[in-house]
Amino acid sequence: MFKNLDYLCEGTRLQRKIYRLLVDLGIFEDLSSYSPTLCGTIPLDIATASSDLDIIMDVRNDHLFKQTVDSLYSHFPHYHFQFKTIRGTRSAKANFFVQDKEIELFGQPNPVETQYAYLHMCIEYEILKRQPHLREQIINYKENGIKTEPAFASLLGLNGDPYEALLIHGRDQFGIG
């Protein structure tokens, strides 16, 4: 469902605005070789005013990725690129602003479908589908500075690291992960 942006066209006003922004920017075409996928709060309709656009990708050559991203987006306001290790995996991350929205490009040398952001989004989607009353509570948590995964973990009564606990929950409840 989340691999193609077309679902945003039928969504909320914000989702339609984000669709237009991403299409006008051409980011999914420009980076198509990296399997870009929009993850996070926008696809799930739990965004707040400060939500950014998280685009994850399968990046096998991070230096080529950096050159590509630098050439395409370094002229945007607040552009920043960095390499970091996350959960033992070398990751590439670029941030910049387009209009009033921050875009984060995130790449790891793994298929998108196996990355935490994608798995979390699929699990959160299933939770919201089964328990739609949680949507407003999640948004409330987020507006009070709590990140998405900790908000879900708290509302579901999951203990430990919320990122890992959510994966375990998704595996046990929905066969995701």
Produce the secondary structure layout.
Layout: H1 13-25, H2 27-30, E1 37-39, H3 41-44, E2 53-58, H4 62-73, E3 80-86, E4 89-98, E5 101-108, H5 116-130, H6 134-143, H7 148-156, H8 162-174
Helix pairs in contact: 5-8, 6-7, 7-8
Molecular structure report:
The chain is of the alpha+beta class. It folds into two domains: 5-111, Beta Polymerase, domain 2; 117-174. Helices cover 45% and strands 19% of the residues. It is built from eight helices and five strands, in the order ααβαβαβββαααα. The chain has helices at residues 13-25, 27-30, 41-44, 62-73, 116-130, 134-143, 148-156, 162-174, and strands at residues 37-39, 53-58, 80-86, 89-98, 101-108. It has a five-stranded mixed β-sheet with strand order 1-2-5-4-3, with helices on both faces. Strand 4 (89-98) and strand 5 (101-108) form a beta hairpin. Helix 5 (116-130) packs across helix 8, helix 6 crosses helix 7 (148-156) and helix 7 crosses helix 8. The radius of gyration is 16 Å and the shape is globular.
How many domain modules?
Answer: 2
Helix content: 40-55%
Tell me the name of the CATH homologous superfamily of the largest domain. Beta Polymerase, domain 2
Major beta-sheet overview: 5 strands, mixed
- The number of helical elements comes to 8
Distance between the terminal alpha carbons, to the nearest Å?
Answer: 16 Å
In terms of DSSP E residues, the strand content is 15-25%
CATH architecture of the largest domain: 2-Layer Sandwich
Oligomer: single chain
Could you tell me the number of beta strands? 5
CATH class of the largest domain: Alpha Beta
Q: Secondary-structure element order, as H and E?
A: HHEHEHEEEHHHH
Q: What fold name goes in the CATH topology slot of the largest domain?
A: Beta Polymerase, domain 2
Q: Structural class from helices and strands?
A: alpha+beta
Q: Overall mean pLDDT score?
A: 96
For the largest sheet, list the strands in their spatial order.
Answer: 1-2-5-4-3
Rg over CA atoms? 16 Å
Instruction: Return residue spans where pLDDT drops below 50 for at least 5 consecutive residues.
Output: none
What is the global morphology?
A: globular
